[in-house]
Write a structure and sequence with these properties.
By secondary structure, the protein is of the alpha+beta class. It has a domain of 81 residues: 3-layer Sandwich (Rieske Iron-sulfur Protein), CATH 2.102.10.10. It has nine helices and 24 strands. The strands form four sheets. Strands 3, 4, 5, 6, 11, 12, 13, 14 and 15 form a nine-stranded mixed beta sheet that branches. Strands 1, 2, 7, 8, 9, 10, 16 and 17 form an eight-stranded mixed beta sheet that branches. Helix 1 packs parallel to helix 5, helix 1 packs parallel to helix 8 and helix 3 packs across helix 8. The longest helix is centred in the N-terminal third of the chain and has 24 residues.
Length: 509
């Protein structure tokens, strides 16, 4: 099964039967409506159901059809943006809470898998962080000390053991699992607890509880169907159905990250998580296979801003070249895929009450490369907020927090620069220059068009202006999608929106 995210297929769908759910055909009422059936949405639904609340989950695609099935499935409490940076931006106490929350998320996944008898290959492993060539010689020393200040007990500096058997930091009690097997089991648990899951129709609007009248919130779906709910959780990677919440898009940026997978002899690479400190950085892990003869080695990295492709866009080739230096035993690349990562400007996710005029709308976004643990801790935190319980993580993940640092300024300057594409010429001057199965942006007088030539040679023309905030979309040759370089919205070759923050499709030209 390919996820609706694009043309590539990750290894996580091989041999996994993803259950199908009917579309919601008639308006209904519930206590909580969760938008998004990835790990964040289903985890929130699971915990809320265990509190005795009635829950409906909505998703346009199949469960796990977004980014959960496009991860490399590292489960880490070693913070992806580094303890050094979290401490610098937020202080030692916030760094401590960030570590504790991700560690609690790994514990929760382990506990749910055991209690619900989900066979998802969960395994506790070590994680090893290696300094990239050219980095400051003391970067590992400083990160090690910051990790200890954050409360990380099982951590040590090693002279060897990292990538290329170089010096590294070993982080204990990390973990790995099979994300789609886990998600299928989690969906079954949600159903067993009385939750209702509906797929196949797009959510087009979210309106929370009216603070003046107390009138319950509504989630509107294509076709005029509505779900009325006391609480609404938007867990869609980007909070796209929240029309009146602009601020979040200035505080985080969308990146594409790439993964390749290849068979290696069983036991040739120790079961562990591996990272380097490069920019863009690399991440590696091993997934044991049923046969026992081979393992699958997953190598990821080469991140770049969504819709802003490097001059040499051979990302998979660069990953393979890098991987063969450290793992000479790898053979043919069996899988290639990419996924979308939301990078908050200050390194911490946005989990909590959405900044809307209406109340009782909650959001989980800003995964920063740690979507599986962020999604899980998000489910825990949102449940506490809905149940009016205090949670020590609430403040550090508060979506309303102010951000004004160098990264915030840099990312927003980058976004503004993309609007110059409105004034430039097209990528091609004639349709004949576009190969079959590819797309390009063309100028047509004062307008710019997203022109796609399908495999049969038929031409499809749409406006190239993103329906979110009017940036010019770019053709993604890897996933065969139109990607917005400003805020990461994505559309299929025929202009249908597949990822927010955009809600509407690209208009036909």
């Amino acid at each position: 099964m390919k996820s609706p995210d694009g043309a590539t297929e990750s290894s996580w769908y091989t041999g996994v039967e993803v259950p199908r759910f009917a579309s919601l055909r008639a308006s209904t009422r519930t206590d909580v409506c969760v938008v998004g059936a990835g790990i964040a949405g289903l985890t929130a639904a699971y915990f809320l159901l265990r509190e005795g609340l009635k829950v409906i989950v909505l998703d346009e695609g199949p469960i796990g059809g977004g980014q959960t099935g496009r991860t490399s499935a590292h489960l880490a409490s070693a913070i992806d943006d580094r303890f050094i940076e979290i401490e610098k931006s937020h202080g030692v106490e916030a760094s401590r809470l960030a570590y504790q929350s991700h560690a609690a998320a790994i514990d929760a996944i382990e506990r749910i898998a055991a209690e619900e008898k989900i066979k998802c290959d969960f395994l506790r492993v070590d994680g090893f962080l290696t300094a990239a060539p050219g980095d400051s010689p003391d970067i590992l020393d400083r990160e090690f000390e910051a990790a200890k200040r954050a409360g990380f007990a099982d951590v040590e500096l090693l002279a060897a053991g990292g990538l290329g058997n170089r010096s590294c930091i070993r982080f204990g009690r990390q973990a790995q699992f099979h994300p789609m097997k886990y998600l299928v089991g989690l969906a079954a648990a949600v159903k067993r607890l009385g939750g209702r899951i509906y797929t196949g129709r797009r959510v087009v609007d979210v309106q929370g509880t009216d603070p003046k009248t107390g009138k319950a919130g509504k989630v509107s779906i294509e076709g005029g169907v509505r779900v009325t709910a006391d609480h609404i959780v938007v867990a869609t990677n980007t909070p796209s159905p929240i029309n009146d919440w602009f601020g979040i898009y200035t505080k985080q940026a969308s990146y594409r990250s790439y993964v390749i997978a290849t068979a290696i002899p069983h036991g040739s690479v120790p079961l562990a998580l591996y990272w380097d400190t490069g920019d863009p950085y690399h991440y590696v892990r091993v997934q044991p296979q049923r046969s026992g003869k081979n393992d699958l080695l997953l190598i990821g990295g080469e991140d770049h801003k969504t819709g802003q492709f490097p001059e040499n866009a051979a990302t998979f080739l660069r990953l393979e070249t890098w991987a063969r230096e450290f793992f000479p035993m790898i053979g043919r690349i069996r899988f290639r895929w990419s996924g979308q990562v939301q990078e908050p400007a200050d390194g911490l996710a946005f989990i909590g009450r959405a900044l809307t005029d209406k109340q009782e709308v909650f959001v989980i976004t800003g995964d920063s490369g740690m979507g599986l643990t962020h999604g899980t801790l998000g489910g825990i935190l949102i449940t506490d907020l809905i149940q009016k319980r205090g949670n020590p993580w609430e403040k550090i993940y508060d979506p309303s927090r102010k951000i004004l640092n160098a990264e915030f300024v840099r990312e927003n300057a980058n976004t503004l620069a993309q609007y110059t594409d409105l004034l430039t010429g097209g990528e091609v001057s004639a349709i004949d220059e576009i190969p079959k199965g590819a797309g390009a942006v063309m100028r047509d007088g004062l307008k710019k068009l997203a022109v796609y030539r399908d495999p049969a040679g038929k031409i499809h023309r749409h406006s190239a202006v993103c329906t979110h905030l009017q940036c010019i979309v770019q053709w993604n040759p890897v996933e065969k999608t139109w990607d917005c370089p400003c805020h990461g919205s994505r559309f299929d070759p025929l202009g249908k929106v597949i990822m927010g923050p955009a809600i509407d499709d690209l208009p036909r030209a």
